[in-house]
């Protein structure tokens, strides 16, 4: 198995892993970037969300080999106003889903800025990021503590 | 997960030659369904040929007014495309009502068509499933079958096809382009998926050496007046109990001049509702004609104890969507 080369948070990393290993497991178990969390490991909870070339994906369903050469951003590489806003608005309790929520929200804000619609968008392209838009667009991230109101408020504050 | 060989394809022809000589190989797109199935042990390919770097990710307007969608276009990019939003709005809506933002960024158009059922018993290796293991039986019949199909079922299988996108594509009369080292063929979307019959493990016309390369949409003026409604147990991120893709247009006499109707969540494949369409064409737009057409389509339904409610729910959803489209047209 040739060595896998991944570019993460602006740095080159090497990992000697079999092709069935997920990007999530490479991050956590091989590179010790444990900020990215494993929740369901089947794409349902969003805790493992990272950015690839600026787009949010779930790293648990991503085979690491597929992402060689891509620009991967994990929570360790994030410095964004959303982080302070989550703290200010109590957008967390246990904090386990927070790295995924933050990465997902960053990706979501870029999608909205680029004019991508959501299921809550009635017009051809989205206008303001309403609370309904935020909730629909963030529905891939589950918070078992139920800090959703704070999460939505934090994102709303940063969006406006 | 069982290990496998990984190959990264950079050329379509090379990928096709490779899979032709390696029957245990599978193409890997976004991986959102296949990786999960491999982790569960339901799929165990010997080789994965990663096709995500092949140049099949473009969306191109055709001279006739149609649209050619590369098989590797990500679901989110297709849903956001201005031509799709404007000319085929129900296709964009259907995609955006499926999965999550993260998964739509990964999942490809070709992979969406080939995703496998989420029937609980297909996923549970301890249960009998004819789709997973031909001849094993079907635990869904006697089990928790709230999510299962009422149309197109057989004694062997009652699993639904889970895609929302494919329901809108069925209504549009989309055509699937597939290639192999033997050549190229074009398969109407409505014929692409197979009814389960006695062979529920065979799910589409795609041969093991074939690759979906594109999906083509014909020009379809009626699709500009279309809507997709999905009824489900949660407001977001759940598979459909019932979904309806509909497009409707009227003649100068106020009667229905063109109509497209397809159903999801109730059938073993994306279900084009041709019986209802025939009854609606030329009819007056009224609650009665909508209800009669919906009932005629669902007349063939075979309910199970847990999913009989879907018949009435499907009829009411069809009526509601057609009513909405009628109101929109008379208001514009």
UniProtKB/TrEMBL annotation, chain A:
Signal sequence segment: none
SUPFAM superfamilies in the record: 2Fe-2S ferredoxin-like (SSF54292), CO dehydrogenase ISP C-domain like (SSF47741)
Top-level taxon of the source organism: Bacteria
Pfam hit, one: Fer2
Domain 2Fe-2S ferredoxin-type: 2-78
Keyword annotations from UniProtKB, A to Z: Iron, Metal-binding, Oxidoreductase
InterPro entries for this protein: 2Fe-2S-bd (IPR002888), 2Fe-2S-bd_dom_sf (IPR036884), 2Fe-2S_ferredoxin-like_sf (IPR036010), 2Fe-2S_ferredoxin-type (IPR001041), 2Fe2S_fd_BS (IPR006058), Aldehyde_Oxdr_Iron-Sulfur (IPR052914), Beta-grasp_dom_sf (IPR012675)
PANTHER family cross-referenced by the UniProt entry: OXIDOREDUCTASE WITH IRON-SULFUR SUBUNIT (PTHR45331:SF2), OXIDOREDUCTASE, IRON-SULPHUR BINDING SUBUNIT-RELATED-RELATED (PTHR45331)
Protein name: Carbon-monoxide dehydrogenase small subunit
Automatic annotation (TrEMBL), chain B:
Domain FAD-binding PCMH-type residue range list: 1-222
Keywords: Oxidoreductase
Alphabetical list of Gene3D superfamilies matching this protein: 3.30.465.10, CO dehydrogenase flavoprotein, C-terminal domain (3.30.390.50), Uridine Diphospho-n-acetylenolpyruvylglucosamine Reductase, domain 2 (3.30.43.10)
PROSITE patterns documented for this protein: FAD_PCMH
SUPFAM superfamilies the record matches: CO dehydrogenase flavoprotein C-terminal domain-like, FAD-binding/transporter-associated domain-like
Protein name (record): Carbon-monoxide dehydrogenase medium subunit
Native source species: Phytohabitans aurantiacus
């Amino acid at each position: 198995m040739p060595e896998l080369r991944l570019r993460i948070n602006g740095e080159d990393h090497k990992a000697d892993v079999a092709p069935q290993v997920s990007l999530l497991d490479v991050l956590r178990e091989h590179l010790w970037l444990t900020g990215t969390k494993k929740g369901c490991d089947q794409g349902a909870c969003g805790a493992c969300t990272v950015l690839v070339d600026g787009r949010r994906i779930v790293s648990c369903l991503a085979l690491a080999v597929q992402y060689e050469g891509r620009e991967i951003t994990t929570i360790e590489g994030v410095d964004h106003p959303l982080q302070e806003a989550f703290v200010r608005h109590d957008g967390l309790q246990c904090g386990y889903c927070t790295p995924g929520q933050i990465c997902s929200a960053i990706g979501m804000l870029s999608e909205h800025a680029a004019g991508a619609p959501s299921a809550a968008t009635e017009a051809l392209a989205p206008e303001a990021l309403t609370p309904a838009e935020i909730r629909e667009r963030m529905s891939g991230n589950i918070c078992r503590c139920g800090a959703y109101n704070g999460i939505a408020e934090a994102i709303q504050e940063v969006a406006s | 997960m069982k290990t496998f060989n990984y190959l990264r394809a950079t050329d379509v022809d090379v990928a096709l030659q490779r899979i032709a000589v390696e029957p245990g190989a599978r193409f890997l797109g976004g991986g959102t369904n296949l990786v999960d199935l491999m982790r569960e042990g339901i799929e165990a390919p010997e080789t994965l040929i990663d096709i995500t770097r092949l140049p099949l990710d473009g969306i191109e307007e055709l001279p006739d007014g149609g649209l050619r969608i590369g098989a590797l276009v990500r679901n989110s990019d297709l849903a956001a495309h201005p031509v799709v939003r404007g000319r085929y709005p129900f296709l964009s809506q259907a995609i955006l009502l499926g999965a999550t933002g993260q998964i739509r960024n990964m999942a490809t158009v070709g992979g969406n068509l080939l995703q496998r059922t989420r029937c609980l018993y297909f996923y549970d290796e301890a249960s009998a499933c004819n789709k997973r293991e031909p001849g094993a039986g079907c635990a869904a019949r006697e089990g928790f079958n709230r999510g299962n199909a009422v149309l197109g079922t057989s004694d062997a299988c009652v699993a639904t096809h889970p895609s929302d996108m494919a329901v809108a594509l069925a209504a549009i009369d989309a055509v699937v382009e597939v290639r192999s080292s033997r050549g190229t063929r074009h398969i109407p979307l409505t014929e692409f998926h197979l009814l389960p019959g006695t062979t529920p493990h065979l799910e589409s016309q795609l041969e093991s050496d074939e690759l979906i390369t594109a999906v083509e949409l014909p020009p379809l003026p009626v699709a500009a007046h279309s809507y997709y409604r999905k009824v489900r147990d949660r407001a977001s991120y759940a598979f459909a109990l019932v979904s309806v893709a509909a497009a409707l247009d009227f003649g100068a006499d106020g009667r229905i001049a063109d109509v497209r109707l397809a159903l999801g969540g109730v059938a073993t494949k994306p279900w084009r509702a041709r019986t209802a369409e025939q009854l609606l064409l030329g009819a007056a737009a009224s609650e009665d004609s909508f209800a009669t057409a919906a009932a005629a389509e669902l007349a063939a339904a075979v309910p199970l104890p847990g999913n009989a409610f879907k018949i009435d729910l499907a009829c009411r959803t069809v009526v509601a969507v057609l009513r909405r489209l009628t109101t929109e047209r008379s208001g514009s």
